[in-house]
């Protein structure tokens, strides 16, 4: 994919084009922005532009160098991504060892660190040494969501390039599988994507909409029978990857409740199409309570990422939110 094919990141692409035109591409770049907005794709497009043998100014997409980069087999272009939870020191060392060698065929060797904020401390320290004295024939591109999650010493050695969230129009055009979705499911997927190009939404939007409605029905009351019913659903979802969506959706739901209760318009809501359900919940979850539950969901998501028991985590989360809501409303179960 060349720069021309990357949509929704005109500002970032413009900055890179100016660097290329002026021959001022630095040794290390830091691509900052949400996940799934094109940072890694743009880094590989930049690798093509630097190594295209067709002298087209930007990657032609057809020459041997461009094809190898696109297929992930170019010997001088490496993409390092987390191995499990983190980018580990062995991964960094493997790349650093290559940097001491003359490139096989590239004019400019390119190393891309995807989700660079997930380097563990030993890996970050090992990589810092390379950034302090980068090889002259190498470009290093770190892709991260926020510079606050990286060592300051790493950030200070990179030139930042910022990537924004994608517009709804861009998402409607690019979301994988969007042409197969109903109008309602596509609208849900675009809102839930929150400006990110997420393949899972195109594939599972219909399924996740159904889960959302099951959650709304099961969590609509705070009494004991309702909890038994939703626990059965939690057990089913915790045995699949659907638990990730359940937690993510709960995060958006309590966010929306807090916003709506604070006077925000429906257009700011991720669950805009379920605003009537939100209004029914607001008596039990006023803004302060919704915000408290939102923070509890964030904590539960962090725990789940550390391999905590998924079912117990979901049940404990909802009991916690239920208790907060009951205390705020004087114990009325609704």
Molecular structure report:
This protein is of the alpha/beta class and 334 residues long. The chain has two domains: 162 residues, Rossmann fold (3-Layer(aba) Sandwich); 160 residues, no CATH class. It contains 14 helices and five strands. It has a five-stranded parallel β-sheet, sandwiched between helices. Helix 2 runs antiparallel to helix 3, helix 8 packs across helix 9 and helix 9 packs across helix 11. It is elongated, with a radius of gyration of 23 Å. The mean pLDDT is 92.
Distance between the termini: 54 Å
Oligomer: single chain
The number of distinct β-strands equals: 5
What is the count of distinct domains?
A: 2
* CATH class category label of the largest domain: Alpha Beta
What profile does the largest beta sheet have?
5 strands, parallel
Main sheet: strand order: 2-3-4-1-5
Helix vs. strand class: alpha/beta
> CATH homologous superfamily of the largest domain, by name?
P-loop containing nucleotide triphosphate hydrolases
Shape: elongated
Q: Any idea of the CATH topology of the largest domain?
A: Rossmann fold
Helical proportion, percent range: 40-55%
């Amino acid at each position: 994919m060349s720069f021309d094919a990357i949509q929704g990141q005109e500002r970032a692409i413009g900055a890179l084009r100016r660097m290329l035109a002026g021959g001022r591409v630095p040794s290390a770049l830091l691509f900052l922005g949400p996940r799934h907005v094109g940072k890694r794709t743009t880094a590989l497009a930049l690798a093509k532009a630097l190594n295209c043998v067709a002298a087209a100014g930007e990657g032609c997409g057809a020459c041997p160098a461009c094809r190898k980069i696109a297929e992930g087999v170019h010997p001088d272009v490496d993409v390092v991504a987390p191995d499990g939870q983190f980018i580990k020191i062995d991964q960094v060392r493997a790349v650093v060892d290559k940097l001491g060698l003359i490139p096989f065929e590239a004019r400019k060797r390119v190393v891309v660190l995807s989700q660079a904020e997930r380097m563990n401390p030993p890996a970050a320290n090992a990589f810092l040494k390379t950034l302090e004295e980068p090889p002259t024939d190498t470009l290093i591109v770190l892709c991260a969501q926020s510079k606050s999650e990286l060592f300051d010493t790493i950030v200070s050695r990179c030139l930042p390039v910022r990537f924004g969230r994608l517009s709804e129009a861009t998402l409607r055009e690019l979301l994988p599988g969007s042409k197969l979705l109903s109008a309602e499911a596509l609208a849900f997927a675009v809102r839930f994507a929150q400006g990110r190009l997420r393949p899972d939404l195109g594939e599972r939007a219909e399924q996740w909409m159904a889960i959302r409605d099951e959650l709304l029905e099961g969590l609509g009351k705070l009494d004991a029978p309702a909890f038994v019913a939703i626990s059965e659903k939690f057990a089913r979802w915790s045995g699949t990857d659907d638990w990730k969506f359940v937690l993510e959706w709960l995060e958006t739901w309590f966010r929306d409740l807090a916003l709506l209760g604070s006077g925000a318009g429906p257009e700011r809501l991720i669950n805009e199409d379920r605003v009537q359900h939100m209004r029914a919940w607001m008596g039990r979850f006023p803004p302060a309570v919704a915000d408290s539950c939102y923070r509890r969901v964030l904590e539960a998501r962090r725990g789940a990422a550390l391999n905590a028991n998924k079912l117990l985590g979901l049940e404990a989360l909802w009991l916690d939110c239920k208790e907060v809501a009951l205390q705020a409303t004087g114990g009325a179960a609704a």
